[in-house]
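Follow-up to my earlier ticket, as requested here are the two runs.
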Amino acid sequence: MTAAGPYPTFDAFYRAQHDRMFHFFRRKVGRDEAPDLVQEAFTCVLRSGAFDRLENPNGYLTRTARNLVINRARTWHRKGCMLYPLDEARDAPLLPDQEWKIEARELRAAYRRALLALPRRTRRIFLMHRLKGMSYRAIAKSLELSEKGVEYHIMRALARCRKAITFQR
């Protein structure tokens, strides 16, 4: 390519005008779409075959960029689409906190019912292990049971809790 206006080559023209075009498109269509439209604008100028004959390549590029924005708007209008940039802070999906709180409350109630339905000794052993963090050995020693007996009561309580959760869902 020969000189067009003040630019010796198309490469020099591209390097000099890229940032300006990016900022133009960013203002018009948003940060996500801008890089693609910048490339499209420069491609249109290059494919036109008129670059080496242009006296004002900056003006030609600007007019091409404006036409791309107009064509894009027409296409969106024809399709009935609206394009709004996503604002991550405002538009991010919200977690279903309220639903989770309700499920957690129902789950706690199911556990409570299951524990209250246990025989008194099994419930006591289970709570000593789960709430107080006592080992099987410590529970066995304090209640004068074997460790296998403690294990039996814990397994029985866990089975009831599992069953209560299965019915809950």
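Run two:
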Amino acid sequence: MIVKKSNSRSSSKDVSVNSYKKKYWAVIPAAGVGKRMGSKIPKQYLQLAGKTVLEQTLSIFLQHPDISGLVVAITQGDPYWQDISDNFNKKNAQLVIVAPGGSERCHSVLNALQTLSEYASDDDWVLVHDAARPCLKRDDIDRLIEQLSDTTVGGLLGLPMADTVKRCDKAQKVLSTVDRSELWRALTPQMFPFKRLKDSLEDAINSHAMVTDEASAIERQGLKPQMVEGHPGNIKITHPGDLQLAELFLSQSVD
């Protein structure tokens, strides 16, 4: 079911705190244009293994039994979304909510959370995932839920840094070699309690701190998100060659 807006509050907000079972919601910011792809259309609408990149990504969450629904943030007047939404409307019973995209990722995510407030409770969990990461494995979602659901802060998928890391100046001259023993690459999904994430993003934006991921907003509150090691195949499609690599990962997909 595709929903654009609702004026009614979810019935889940009427149950007692003691009996309420926390839900898991996915948020997909999909308002980017993907300039580095050099494509005439946004990268999330490029074809990948018979579907658009965005369809592949949304399907991961719509097929997961623990996900109650998802919010996708779309640019106003997006000419490509309608075909996708019609397709999901026919094939999926899960709740798919459309929110307005923003000028930056943090704005899109906050818009999605504000829209989701009609359905989610404060203590529900939100998994924010890049639209251009279509190779996420179900095992990684399971691992996030298993390892973070009993925490109060939340966390994110990541990978330990394997390459030697160099710090350079503006002329690209090497200044030093960085100790990589405590360095991780941040991936998505990033999973946090609904209200905590919403409040943290509002505070960051109001302070003109354009955070590039959700964990950064949480960190600004003096909190320490938990890193959960993910699968290296969870690549982000950024450059043209990434599409071929993503298609390879999808063809070899083994959950």
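The only thing I checked on run two: Residues 5-18 have pLDDT under 50 and may be disordered. Let me know what else you need.
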